Structure formats: C-alpha cells, structure tokens
Amino acid sequence: MTQANQPLSPHLQIYRPQITSVLSILHRLTGVALGVGALLLAWWVIAAAAGAQPFAGAQAFLASWLGRLILLGFSFALFYHLLNGIRHLFWDMGKGFEIGTTRASGWAVVVLSLGFTLLAWLLGYVLRGGP
Amino acid sequence: MSLRSSLGQIRGLGSARSGTHHWWHQRLTALALIPLSVWFIAAVVGLTGAEHARVAGWLGSSVTATLMILLMAATFYHLKLGLQVVIEDYVHAEWLKLTAVIVVTFACLVLGLATVLAVLSLWLGG
After folding, report:
1. pLDDT at position B123, please?
2. Which of A72, A77, B6, B46 could be joined to A30 by an S-S link, Cβ 3.0–4.6 Å?
3. CA distance A100 to chain B (A)
C-alpha cells in the first residue's frame, strides 16, 4: 500500500463523541453481544428438549449471579438493539434525519431501553415472588 | 506507485459481490423480529423461574412452536447478516475475513437448525 499515509475519512479519533455516534457504535456492539445471547438462547431451548436434567442445569446457571449478570446485559442489549433498530428503519424510509430529531430519537431510545429493562426485571422478580 | 485515488481504482469494477440483496434481507428480518422479539420477551418474563415441565409444555404448544421457529430462523439469519458486515468492516486480511464469514455462516446455520429441531421435537414428539 503506497498510499497508506494519504488521509482517509472519517478521522474518528479527532471527533468529540456525540449522542449519534455513540449510539451508532452501541448498535453494533449490542448486535454482537446479542450473538452471544443467541448462543445462550439456543442452549436453553435445546436443554428444554433434552429433558428435565439438562434443563435444570441451564436454569441453575441462568439463576446464578453470573447468569443473571449475563441475562441483564442480554436484556438491555435486546431492548436497545430493538428500539434503535426501529430508529434505523425510519432512517431507511428517509424519515427523521434532521439533527434535532436524531438527537431526540437517540435519547428516547436510551431512556426507553433502560426503562423496559428495569420493567422486565421488576416483573420477573414479582412473578418469581422475590429474588 | 499509482497516482490514481483509491476510489478511482475501484470505480467501474461493479458491486462488491452483491447488490442490495444483503441489505434488504437484513431489513426484512429486522421487521419480522420486532413483533417476534416483543412476544418472546413477554413470554420469557412470564416464565421466570419456571420448572422444566412448564417450559417444555409451553415450547411444545403449536402456537409457541410456530412463533419460536419463525423467531429462530429470523434471529440466526439476521445474526449471520449482521456479523458478516462487522467482519467485512474490521477484518482486512482477505483469508481471515473469508474464514470468519464462513465460520459465522456455518455456526448460525447449525445453531438455528439445532434450535428449530429442538422445538420440533418438543412440539411433535413431546
């Protein structure tokens, strides 16, 4: 590569992080994280089909502190990627590109994904009848 | 040393192996995954702490099994498409890029198929 020193855009390292750029990379990161979550989901479903004993093993891991931490990350990643994905679909239709709108929709995604995560866990603990 | 710009060198060579097919399928699966994941989250929250018999019974019911198979198909296809883009963006060594995309493709296919078969066995054999 003889042109290695030629400046190529974008120079990410000189940009101040903004809500739009941070949420953009977070969409990718949560997407990759959800790939790990899909492994967990596949394990859970296959364990359920394999019988009571393998399923109890999967449930025991998911109920441990490490399992719950992973599930917490999984649930937030899912809500975030789902909501931000809807934001992306609106952009694909050419809607919501105004700077004020992208910032507002970005913050809405952050607040809603945190809120839905909290709500899902509260509901889960209520249905379970305590921690 | 070439005096032509990077853009000039690739112009006219055609699309990079595909047209809008990849992009469009990513959007189609995204659209399908909106209702499917909302349904799944609600169902799984309702199953918090459930024992095996209840989960197996739930997975084996015809409505759940059908929705679950659709969810798994859309999820693993969407995952394959998404991870492929991430790999193509960040892995620049051609052999490693190709290897990673092949591994991701096969892994998503195998995991998706295994999960669908597990659901089918609970539905039809349970």
Report:
1. 96
2. A77
3. 25
